[in-house]
Here is the input.
Amino acid sequence: MRPPNELDFWRGLALATIFIDHVPGIIFENYTLRAVAISDAAEIFVFLAGWSMRLLVSSRSVRQMDGLHLVLRLEGRAFTIFAAQIVITEIALAMTAAGSLLLENPLILEWNNASAVFEDPVEAHLGLVMLSHQLGYFDILPLYVVLMAFAPIAVLVDRYFPLLLLPLSLALYAATLATGVNIPTWPVEGRWYFNPMAWQLNFVLGFALAAPHGLGGFVRRHRLAMRWVAAPLLLAGVTAAHYNWSPDPLSLPEPQLFLMFDKTYASPARVIETLALVALFGGLYPHIAGWFGRATAFFSMLGRNSLNVFCVGSLLSLLAQFVRFTLGGGFGIDAGVLFVAVGCMYVTAWLSEWRDRARP
Here is the structure.
């Protein structure tokens, strides 16, 4: 197993933060990134997914692959994530049904956009497999499936026409915000909570900035200047979050999505704040590891096994919702929920690595 590193550390911290943010009302949500900024851990998670993709395609074995084998490798990863989404969604539905029976409360069947599955299971299950129907708090992996499914295009463009990748990504992002286009949901009418056509920019930015040359090389050579630029941008976002301020859509000119703090469309303000966070905290891992060695090793283990930990964390967040619904909130309950959940996420990561070590 690779030793603790910056990518795994931040990814593990993002996973723990996402768990907290997926338990509405928990006390600790007041101390996550979402509470103090206009962006949140989801942006960081997707950005780091792009960064991880760069490390993968930069490895010697992948660099030597021809285009066809590269596409098959990446599409295989997309299918793995798709399978994980289907599995955890079905488990979540079973947990919801069990919670409704045990607590004798049929209203629980309506939690997290699950009612369609119990009212019209034929169409709803077809929608689940097509990813056109998603449960609340289980909608990040569908975004990741789409990003990975189209990742070969980004990788091949970067391989043969590297200067075109970021402009093409920005053009798609701008067109999405200008038109408001999004993927429709079915059978429940609506739109994807995470619009892949907008969120791909976070992914591509992570991929581009992780490169040792081009934009990534430029940023590294001017890291101090980037931090000076990032500091006031981050301060502006923190101030807006502190005063709970966001632009009034009714007073904005068209196209409004360029000026709003919209999460579905990963609005520019959120992207800029994410980049500011990366600029300020990127490269500080050696200092953090020096001060909090065990903590960095802990979160790095979570990050090394991100898919397994994310899946277990998603199910634990639903279980935590049941616990808080039954027992109520309060510091004691919430602290116990967080301690048990993070402990289970650690055990998941440890078992994942133990399984890999046990293989011949």
Remarks:
- Residues 53 and 59 are 10 Å apart (CA to CA).
- Residues 6-358 form one domain.
- Residues 67-102 form the longest helix (36 residues).
- DSSP finds 18 helices and two strands in the chain.
